[in-house]
Amino acid sequence: MSIKISSHFDAGAIEVVSTAQPSQINLNLRKDSNADFMQWFYFRLQGARDEACTLRILNAGAATYPSGWEGYRAVASYDREEWFRVDTEYDGKVLTIKHTPTEDSVYYAYFEPYSWERHLSLLGRAAYSPQVRIEDLGNTVDGRDLNMLVIGDEAAEQKVWVIARQHPGESMAEWLVEGMLDALLDVANPIARKILQKAVLYVVPNMNPDGSVRGNLRTNAAGANLNREWMTPSLETSPEVFYVKNKIHETGCDLFLDIHGDEGLPYNFVAGSEMLQGFTEQQMAEQNAFVQSFVAASPDFQTKFGYPTDKYYEDVLKLASKYVGHHFKCTSLTLELPFKDNADMPDDVVGWDGDRSAKLGEAMLQPILQHLNRNQVKTK
Amino acid sequence: MSIKISSHFDAGAIEVVSTAQPSQINLNLRKDSNADFMQWFYFRLQGARDEACTLRILNAGAATYPSGWEGYRAVASYDREEWFRVDTEYDGKVLTIKHTPTEDSVYYAYFEPYSWERHLSLLGRAAYSPQVRIEDLGNTVDGRDLNMLVIGDEAAEQKVWVIARQHPGESMAEWLVEGMLDALLDVANPIARKILQKAVLYVVPNMNPDGSVRGNLRTNAAGANLNREWMTPSLETSPEVFYVKNKIHETGCDLFLDIHGDEGLPYNFVAGSEMLQGFTEQQMAEQNAFVQSFVAASPDFQTKFGYPTDKYYEDVLKLASKYVGHHFKCTSLTLELPFKDNADMPDDVVGWDGDRSAKLGEAMLQPILQHLNRNQVKTK
Amino acid sequence: MSIKISSHFDAGAIEVVSTAQPSQINLNLRKDSNADFMQWFYFRLQGARDEACTLRILNAGAATYPSGWEGYRAVASYDREEWFRVDTEYDGKVLTIKHTPTEDSVYYAYFEPYSWERHLSLLGRAAYSPQVRIEDLGNTVDGRDLNMLVIGDEAAEQKVWVIARQHPGESMAEWLVEGMLDALLDVANPIARKILQKAVLYVVPNMNPDGSVRGNLRTNAAGANLNREWMTPSLETSPEVFYVKNKIHETGCDLFLDIHGDEGLPYNFVAGSEMLQGFTEQQMAEQNAFVQSFVAASPDFQTKFGYPTDKYYEDVLKLASKYVGHHFKCTSLTLELPFKDNADMPDDVVGWDGDRSAKLGEAMLQPILQHLNRNQVKTK
Amino acid sequence: MSIKISSHFDAGAIEVVSTAQPSQINLNLRKDSNADFMQWFYFRLQGARDEACTLRILNAGAATYPSGWEGYRAVASYDREEWFRVDTEYDGKVLTIKHTPTEDSVYYAYFEPYSWERHLSLLGRAAYSPQVRIEDLGNTVDGRDLNMLVIGDEAAEQKVWVIARQHPGESMAEWLVEGMLDALLDVANPIARKILQKAVLYVVPNMNPDGSVRGNLRTNAAGANLNREWMTPSLETSPEVFYVKNKIHETGCDLFLDIHGDEGLPYNFVAGSEMLQGFTEQQMAEQNAFVQSFVAASPDFQTKFGYPTDKYYEDVLKLASKYVGHHFKCTSLTLELPFKDNADMPDDVVGWDGDRSAKLGEAMLQPILQHLNRNQVKTK
Ligand SMILES: [Ca+2]
Ligand SMILES: [Ca+2]
Ligand SMILES: [Ca+2]
Ligand SMILES: [Ca+2]
């Protein structure tokens, strides 16, 4: 059997240039739907068991975030359950993966994928909790269901919003939500129980279903970068934001968390709202308190590395967390998880992965609760 | 939240006519890709928790097998793991499902689905066995991988072929294969161990990937009914048969099993090759012996109900099992599982389902082994 | 840390002679409670990680069945879940185990143990089935509960009895029962469902609780070999048989299966009742039919190797299966499982073990059902 | 079948007075081995399915902690996996349990038990971690192995000691240790990874194996209350303390945690070392910091309710945590878990249980890490 590269499955994305022999597999990233972004890849290699394979992604240097390839190692899996890192090099132009698969069929990806089937299973499982209501917000561009979980009593005084995966290639964002939900719905978890005494949570585990299934890095089916659509979302090209923005105006918001992945920085960190006009000292104190609580809750979260404050200065209200922070004057953060690893605690085998993302999601309940505790005192 | 019907997911298929209120949900079956068959449905209902829903499939009477609706009950699930039967009536024209869902989101289907993600996971899991080789046979019309498992030593004297799901809506066929594979690869299973001492197995768990994902009943993406393509398969419209037929001519065949579902009969049964020209008494004895062994192995399998021998008299060699039986003069059977239930041992809660299909697949190893034992003696 | 041998846990049994160094660990078998039998051992070794250990059982030649050591390999485990075989030699006097443990703590045993805690869990799990009633038959000598499962409708015409582990060191007998019960209570298992339409089963998973916990090979706490007590059991020294014998006279019996392990023969086989006075041709035919059904159901069961018919000629009615066969004129068999392996299908890693025993228990449902089918016809 | 009460199994403990009928089951607590303590009970009831049972523990008023019965509800289980609370009343003399079991066999206990078999399985599972060494410290009075887990690099600068279940009836203490160990050995847990970069842990999951198996509340087999033996433990009557005390003097200690259950208070809390002579302000600050970190980590832990500081003034150095705090001048705490429930977050179904204890053990890693971080800075 000769070598075969394929990607016709959920989130699959690659272009095959040539597969003459195992040592000369040449590939290209392909662009997001109706857009010029490109970086996500996910494909299957067959026919190379026990062969020393060299897979070259020729156009890696033209990716959206070339710095993402510095120190990066691709993930691989035989069964799509267990993912591990493989040798990867970047010479400024070409990304070269070297791996000798021990099975007939092996998958390579930019990061551990999170499929639409798993998404639907997550909703199905969560729905059994008496605390959970599943709400449909509307249709995506391709016609998929855009769902939200409402957790707890909607009459609760405080409203917490968590949205994830506006950028669909950042699958770690949905792994984090899965970990957070599993902890939140565990009746023996005392932090979860306290949170649900104080607040209702609105959770959108996947803001970009179409981009996720299509294997995009940053856009939806219409080519829109959803995290630049919050000022003027449209039903035609960014209905995902349109519906969520409307809903948040309907419910109000006391804490907003938008979960992302960062291609470059090998750390977990947040970007806050301190650049917003009219951001008060009180808001700064609250934001800092949240961040400090998170540091205490998980050594995987840190504050040393992150974005410069001015990163998004222009048109900043196009971004979800800035928009919400501005309108609701609440703590509003973008949480960034790494594609690479947490350089403070690197793991040679798996790097940063779905499991560690899920644990960070569980740990995030602690700063959420402490935020609610402080806010409760304040509002009394 | 108002009522919503959606089907944009793996194997989803329905047309919405109107959803004015829970008691008046009107739907239509939709046709297979490029073909006139229609019977499979799979959709999600949101927004009707605790509402007494009446879902009417208006064009059920025009389905391919209207007799399939006699005594039929639809399956439903909240989490797509646990499927159960719901009240269903057929008046000769309209199929009416009555159900009060207890969750915000519920799925209804013709039969417990088997997704492409699960298919890939099955391959991934099986591949870890040192007995298994995964082979790619080529691309489907839509460009998916058509995979085969080769189990055991290819130098073995006897060759057993098992193919499933030529008709993609017959998902029970792949459930059966999953059960068979799990048993076959269990090192503590003595029947499996004996089989692998005597034979190599060629197993195609899903002959029709495109039709499966598209939610077709009987055809592939090009509209071809694969089980009528065995005389003259084409690379353009029935590559799935083209590749498998070639491979079987390459390997030879001593036992052929083609797994199907039958819309009408509430029984498990086989259709044999006795109508073939030149079918010998020896072949008849072998076929009967296989069938009797299967009866002994599983009370879910029976011989009283089945097809009349002349069902496929014309152009019979277009069918997989007839074609193979004719060319290789081996025992060659079509195994039919019910969509409804096994009327000999009905289960009010789940009817016939994936789990019972899987158990039948495990039980099928016993007649396979006994066939190999007899054949071994004969060929010595 | 120096070397330590300990056995103060469920079924633990050994005597320490000396433990000067890893290469010179000298041990003795210890006798059953109040009896001279000895062969079972089960102990823990600590302090020898990565050391090449030589464990010598000095008095092995004086064991009850010295032939049991021919071709025998001891089992070992680090976690008491996964058991594997280790190098073992027998020179006619001393049994020598050579093993280099890779953990600080390792267990060695004659066969994979089945603890009293697991026994109670098995009862607890089975009890949830609506088909099951747990009945207490009385107290053992030490005061433990002697329990029976009644499975199915007690008004059923046919009564099937299965008892196991009269000889407590034959733990494979209870593994077999666990496998049989799990299959029997699986609502998707068609053989189980058919059986429960025709018969009620009386199952005693452990006839000898005290001997099991004490780590005996053959006797109860009072030193009685229960399978020699069926003529005149006593409340004082063999209450376990006393209670079960009374119960069987109360219920009647149409099929009796007594599960044992055999120290010497590396095969699964049955000993029948053909030596009984008045044993009819009809009984012989029924017994043979059962045996042939069993052969078809599992290649791990065979008829070539077994006991000579006259093995128990004298006082034969002291044995459970002979006693019952004589009194109830029904098919009554002793099923023997190996301590060593099934030489027809040896497994280098685990030999014969709990998992394979459980699978044989599942397979045994098939001859049981076919016996019931034949018997049903006969009694009509 | 008539009513039967039995307790001949791991940790079983009760005396039967009379069992005339389900509504009149009279029982007595029995004393610890060689001691006058009594409070623990654990027994099985058979023969009362669907009967409204009234079980009266006649001598409850003479128990060691009669206040333990105020607001207390007994736990029950059918399978010894799922435990739930049942109606229980205390009139100052008699403890009355009212329950209608829905199965033939049901167990009642003072608290969810933790068996010796589970203890050995916990050790076996943990041992697979490359971070873990299992060390045998010596024999208990009855001859069981007293084991310690050494986790991490013994050359680490900081030494953390965790011991549990000096009082064997306080089974929640070992549930806590199980939760802590599972988290500690999870390679994806960032707190665990940080801890193991800084410290080695010495963990004794069960200080009192004999008392645990015998079903004692407070003493070992010799009748010794181990938490009063730390001044002058003896090889004859308190070898468990003798060995652990010696080992701790060998390793040193920077943080000591002794896990207990409290019969009366429905809260989780710690008792500190502030009553010790020479206890410094620095020590007070460290102890307070640990406690505050724990409060942040788990809402199940609190500081409002606890013991008065002078509770153990006399002979205080007989207690483990006081002895260690005094000798090593380190933070040294007794952690108390409730038998009843956490009154801050009561759970009607299970009360306080093994699962919640395990979660508290996982949460405890956070104050441990923060203690290590502070201590590290201090010692630099
Ligand atoms: Ca992003
Ligand atoms: Ca068909
Ligand atoms: Ca025996
Ligand atoms: Ca205590």
TrEMBL record, chains A, B, C, D:
SMART domains with a match to the protein in the record: Zn_pept
InterPro entries per record: Cytosolic_carboxypeptidase, Pepdidase_M14_N, Peptidase_M14
Annotated keywords: Carboxypeptidase, Hydrolase, Protease
Organism domain of life: Bacteria
Record-given protein name: Putative carboxypeptidase
CDD domains: M14_PaCCP-like
Family per record: Belongs to the peptidase M14 family.
Biological process per Gene Ontology, one example term: proteolysis
Active site: E336 (proton donor/acceptor)
Gene Ontology molecular functions: metallocarboxypeptidase activity; zinc ion binding
UniProt domain Peptidase M14: residue ranges: 112-372
Cofactor(s) recorded in Swiss-Prot or TrEMBL: Zn(2+)
Keyword Protease: yes
